[in-house]
Amino acid sequence: MRIVYMLLVTLFFSVQAMAQGKIAGKITDEKTGEPIIGATIVVKGTTDGTSTDVDGQFNVKAQEGTYTIEVKYIGYQGKEVGDIHVTGTGTTTVNVAIKEAKSTELKEVVVRSSIKKENINALYTVQKNSATISDGISADVIKKSPDRSTGEVLKRVSGTTIQDNKFVIVRGLSDRYNVALVDNAILPSTEPNRKAFSFDIIPSAMIDNIIITKAATPDLPGDFAGGAINILTKETPDQNFNTLSVGFNYNTQSTGQNFKSGYRTGTDFLGFDNGSRQLPSSFPSVKNIQSGNVSGQDGITAMQSLNNNYKISEHSALPGINLQGALGRVYHLSNNRKFGVTAAVTYNHTETIKKDLQRLYDNYDYTDNVYTYSTNLGALVNLGYYYGKNKITLKTLYNRIFDDNFLYREGINYSSTSDTRYYAYDLIQKSLFKTTLEGEHQVGSGQSKVNWILSYNLVTNNQPDQRKVSYSRALGTTADFSADNTSLGKANNRLFSDLNENILNAGVNYSLPVDLFEKSTIKVGLFGQSRTRDFSNRYIGMKVDPLSPDGDAVRTRPIETLYGNDVISNGTYMLDDLTGDGDKYDATATTAAAYAMSDNKLTDKVRIVWGVRVESYNLKLNSGNVHVNNTWTDALPSFNFTYSLSEKSNLRASYFRSVARPELREVAPIGYYDYDLSATVTGKADLVRSQVDNIDLRYEIFPGSGEILSASVFYKHFNKTLENNVYGQNSSYDINPTNYDGARNVGVEMEIRKNLGFIANNKFFKGLSLYANLAYIDSKVTLGETKYIQGKEITDRPLTGQSPYVINTSIAYTTEDGKFSANILYNRIGQRIFLVGGERLGNVYERPRDLLDFQASYSLSKKSELRLNVKDILSSPVFFYFDQNNNGKFDGVNYQNGQLDPFSDWKLQAYKPGSTFSLTYIWKF
């Protein structure tokens, strides 16, 4: 036993003696921020050394101790960086910016610096030397907010707001004017009825950083005017890590309250329907049902093959749960090669209630209760292989959202003079699978680079068996409620909907430094995208046979037994199918693009980045008798100017032209009934793309590490702008996209991120940081023809989704040892148009909300952390209203002769979301 003990002790100290740490970082050009390929790094006093890869990154082993590294590259001043402390097996990060040697220097010049100073200098280099006007948010800032999804994170970025907690509005421009990318690969729309990417499907824990580019360069996609939102997921790690986190949340309006839901399966909790809600493969075709070939026993068999469980289950809403796991591995191979893996999985489950949601408009006086059983499942795997001055990465992301909604509505329908009870069971399953293969290679011995990208995306959106059933009785009576199922309509049926879209992206870029002016780079590239989409809606249902003797009695049954097997078996119901040729479409969209640009450092202070991008877009769509084949080719020039007023400040100006194209669904002439809005959403085949001219001016100062002060002015002019309008005739509503003549958008943005240590030289103020971004935006749409709302002439109005102002502020505190941090965040947006009105319907506005959030975290040890979040502390009401008197404000709802006054404002929806408290434990090992 003693011998075993001595062997274990000997082995322990041997391992400790062999344990090595690492020094890692990135070498960049101090003037441009570009990575330096092939720079030599030597650890002074040792034989250890390496060179930078195609990203300018390096990694060198070192025993525990304090070191100085020396950085050398031909044509640049050498630099020594000291005070680098390596402990155990950890990695010490050193980012170094080096400067070109002047031609007048006759001997080698070596600049000496410290690790702290150099990391700050490198951060300045990244911020100050951006080629264009952009804003972003890093993983460190995301960690200090209570946000769980990318959609929630984005509202913290300057000039950015979020609609429905997931759709991005940049500089007041709705989602159609923005483009989404993940790891430089363009993402499609995740929504079947609009051009929008649902950012809530990407958990914040998977993000490395987010960059929103607001002024285009030719190497970016040409179809944005608000912003190009690039989400960069976790890269190859510098060192191995494992992280687990478990969190629970409590919502004041939902948790512990009576929660109602429809049919439930054992796999719902995992985010997957087990197939029991899907339309059976043996179910009769549309043609057979509509031709009358499915009747008698065949009809009964078909109806019995459906899932006819309408039972409403009740339980106390459970607390939300949030589980996340991540790991990173890096393997250093021979000949300076490296292979790394980052992987993460996330799981979220919530049960939320929109309680007593009011709807008071036109002929409706309703109160809704909406129950949402939601599961989000995500996974990410990133692989990176570095060899010499080359890099190849494979990044794969999968995310799935399972939202099972149950709506119960009570109220009055004045148009039919009836009391109403309405039930809607609606499961929405949507998923995104994305995989991107990307390579970057140095060409020759200089800084020339080739990078290429291949990407595949699969988007699905499935609504299996959306059920809508209404009951009514004569207003003012005490008679039994009777189901309105003697006939079927878009508001009273069973919908089976499927969307599948495949997207292929391919691109190649080549950059070449040239001996022109002080420093210049020419960049050219090609890009291609192919999208194919199949979409179908099928509307079926059971209606009472008018010849059935017990039809009236069956219609008074409660919802749970309304479609019981006993009444189906005795022939009370007939099977009907409302599906038309226009209820499905297939589409292909092909984009081919080429660009050329030049990045010129004219002097030590003046830089211009200019060029042109040409995009050709072809859209083909078939739906029933409608066939669309449109091609638009656009030349999109851009020009970005930067003048460095000092080492810490820039003056920027830019111009670029961009486009906004109608989404596939918007061109398809399909009518889809939205039971939530009581409206039919319909596309138009004659839509055309918008062209946008954009001008920006910005002044920015970088006072210290991670600090910024900036002010921006922007102007945008739109030709044939695209917006959604709502049109009402009698008691029916239609929402459709429309081209208006033009629009303009002008605004001012200001941003500050500042440490408050200048107030007093003590630990408290040094740990305080203030952040704020403010925007004021004014927009105007030219309608092209005189419009009337409630008899009033309308010649212009603001853009849809545009808020006149945006306020984002936060104040954060971190102790000197970093163990405790707290952050208070506030967000408010000005009133904005949700839907454009028409005829007897005013514009639908969303009123402002005050959002106040709080987070505190405490490190229990080096390996564990406890985090408390409080989201939406004030629980301000969500409020949408019809501006019937067209004065831009809500004046209250009035009644006239017992009905809603058409000339007073109406409520589209109003409810309180509640506050959410969450506690999360994080373990790192």
Topology:
Blueprint lengths: L1 H17 L2 E9 L10 E4 L5 E3 L5 E6 L2 E8 L5 E9 L4 E3 L2 E3 L11 E5 H14 L5 E5 H5 L6 H5 L5 E4 L3 E4 L7 E5 L2 E2 L20 E7 L13 E7 L7 E11 L6 E4 L24 H5 L5 H9 L8 E4 L3 E14 L3 E25 L2 E24 L2 E24 L4 E25 L6 E26 L7 E2 L10 E21 L4 E26 L6 H5 L9 H5 L3 E5 L6 E18 L4 E18 L2 E21 L2 E12 L3 H4 L3 E4 L4 E4 L7 E12 L6 E12 L2 E8 L2 E8 L2 E14 L7 H4 L1 E22 L2 E6 L7 E10 L5 E10 L2 E4 L8 E3 L3 E12 L2 E8 L6 E5 L12 E2 L2 E2 L5 E6 L4 E9 L1
Explain how this protein is built.
The protein is mainly beta and 925 residues long. It folds into three domains: 111 residues, Immunoglobulin-like, CATH 2.60.40; 100 residues, Ferric Hydroxamate Uptake Protein, Chain A, domain 1 (Beta Complex); 608 residues, Beta Barrel (Maltoporin, Chain A), CATH 2.40.170.20. 8% of the residues lie in helices and 57% in strands. The protein contains ten helices and 53 strands. The chain has a 22-stranded antiparallel beta barrel. A five-stranded mixed beta sheet has the order 3-2-5-6-9. Strand 31 and strand 32 form a beta hairpin. The longest helix has 17 residues. It is globular. 43% of the residues are buried. The N terminus is likely disordered.
